[in-house]
Amino acid sequence: MGSVSIPEITISDPCRKFMMDTLVWDNHQCMPLRPDDESFLPQLERCKATGVDVVSLNVSFDVIPWESGIKLLATMRRWLKQRPDQYLLVERPEDILRARVEDKLAVTFDIEGGLALDEHLPMVQLYYDLGVRWMLLAYNRNNALAGGCHDKPQGLTEFGRRVVAEMERVGMVVCCSHTSYTAVMDIMEMATKPVIFSHSNPAAIKNHYRNVPDDAIRACARSGGVMCLSGIGHFMGDNDDRTETMVQHIDYVAELVGVDHVGFGTDYVWDQQEVNDFLQQNPDVFGDEMRGQPLKMFKPDQFAEVVEELLKKNYSETDVRKIMGENLLRVAKQVWK
Ligand SMILES: [Zn+2]
What we know:
Strands 1, 2, 3, 4, 5, 6, 7, 8, 9 and 10 form a 10-stranded parallel sheet that branches. By secondary structure, the protein is α/β, with parallel strands linked by helices. Helix 10 crosses helix 13 (about 305-310). Strand 7, helix 8 and strand 8 form a beta-alpha-beta unit. The model has no long low-confidence stretch (mean pLDDT about 95). The chain has 14 helices and 10 strands. It has a single domain (about 15-335), classed as TIM Barrel. The site of zinc ion has 5 residues, from loops. Zinc ion binds near residues 112, 177, 178, 199 and 267.
């Protein structure tokens, strides 16, 4: 089973033991989106040392050319396959448990925005075959598939509907983060399988265009999906990355829709310079408030603190395990092919 050695955080022995036999799934982290740069990938070892068993790595978003995502998949898959003792490229839900037994980090990929399809529907299957296990349709701005959450109101387009149906057919989980409220509700209405928010926070705690109103969280839960909480400071609060704030977000969603629908997609960015550059250079995509002071982020190291806090509160061990990863495993079993 996984080893847990976290340099910056002091955790109690019972919590360390609990972490070791608990599946920890972070449904969204970001390595540099530069296909020619492998220099950050060894940090995945550190990701694993925090207790994370499964990580979904971002390979593309609507702001960069779609070809770059294919190249990045090639780079990452090649790098991971060269290290079979440490990493496992996930294909099926059973691979998650196998990776834990073999003490490897299980890796999946994700795409933020349907521009990655280049308006070509069969790309959905190609990405799935390359390990992409969730995709969201529009990244902040409207595109050919759907409305984004930081643009004029727009729902799901005809092409967007075809993409949702194709994703369900091939086994790719449909994500509604970054998507407009109207498009989210359109997706929830047509979905026949669990829909997730891969990295979002409740708007009731922090009113932000990226955050999600209660009725959309309820619709996600009704679909059988999971609201994976992001650790981005501006979505959690006033550039607030504290563990206690993350626990407040967990409490809120658990009270609203139940512990079966809470998970994590921290959005932790390993190359902090890259994210701050993106924010400075693309004000039309991110808005002005995201510029200025450097972005704070909840770090994977803090998962152990979250576990400690939840166990101190009224969460049962079973509930904590669901939140840390088993809810996402349930979705994978229901959706992946
Ligand atoms: Zn994102």
